[in-house]
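REQUEST
  id: r-88c1
  op: predict_structure
  target: Glutamine--fructose-6-phosphate aminotransferase [isomerizing]
  payload:
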Amino acid sequence: EKGGYEHFMLKEIYEQPKAVRDTISPRIKDGKVVIEELNMSDEEIKAISRIQIVACGSAYHVGISAKYVLEEVAKIPVDVDFASEFRYRNPILDNNALVIIISQSGETADSLAALREAQARGLKVLGIVNVVGSSIAREADNVMYTWAGPEISVATTKAYSTQLSAVYLISILFGQIRGTVTKEAYKNMVKEIQKLPEKIQKILEEKERIQWFANKFASSHDIFFIGRGLDYATCLEGSLKLKEISYIHSEAYAAGELKHGTISLIEKDILVVGVATQEQLYGKLVSNIVEVKSRGAYVMGLTTYGNYAMEDTADFTVYVPKTMSCFMTSLAVIPLQLLAYYVSVAKGLDVDKPRNLAKSVTVE
Ligand code: F6R
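RESPONSE
  id: r-88c1
  status: 200
  body:
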């Protein structure tokens, strides 16, 4: 049932082009984004005052990316909360707020409780859910399914990727209806989003380089991921993947925060992964890389093809294809998933069933 792959995680990493395509294609008709399941009129979409995203773990990281994309494209203010925080914090939300709960399993106890809490306050809840008929799917006012198919490996990969795609579709649709994107930009986004599957495929074809690098760093004790903007969201996910399955301590930092404390942890030969796919922030990230390098860090740079200046600064550079900057997380995360996977394999760990973790967290 692993289809010839050594682990479910690798199989699911490889299923990502298909999963992303299956999530996007049914929602694009004649060059337009159409999400029938949303069940929201144009008037309702125009009236949204803010969006509150609630989720746990990797789904929360999708929420962080969603904040950047929704604010950029649809100009709607977005808050993101861990479900375990949201449910106890008495959030201030008016009737025109839209609550979005993101969950692969649809059974995460805190996310389900957050959904009920929001509904008890009279708020509408949209669920972005993978498991059909799960509790969150049943109880949400509307459900947008991610079509990742069954995910077996505890560490999520393809569900995460499809959640990102769902968020992009919502952002494009809301931006169009609220008039915050030009016709030209709309057309471009619809075109670019459909190219994501083949670009992910291309990254997967270069997995040997990551595997080689993972073997070299498998005995690390601390790894830092730094990025700005959407690259920071990517770092959060890359760091969690690594922690979960390789048992290496790692942290993700918004790169500008480094010098406010964390940089004291950087010493000789510590691995720092610098993610730099956001063009307008590229120079800033490069200067952060220079700073950690001057403290002795070994730097893996992750950037887009064409940005070859990175070679002068990083010790090892991984390239991914370019897409619009708001969709870059979908591509930049792939090498980080592979890095976590191959480190875990190199250490001989139980990749699909890491210690202390369950696939769906049904107790709070
Ligand atoms: C990480 C991972 C977890 C889940 C989290 C939420 O690889 O799988 O962090 O993302 O437990 O689970 P769902 O999406 O089922 O609500």
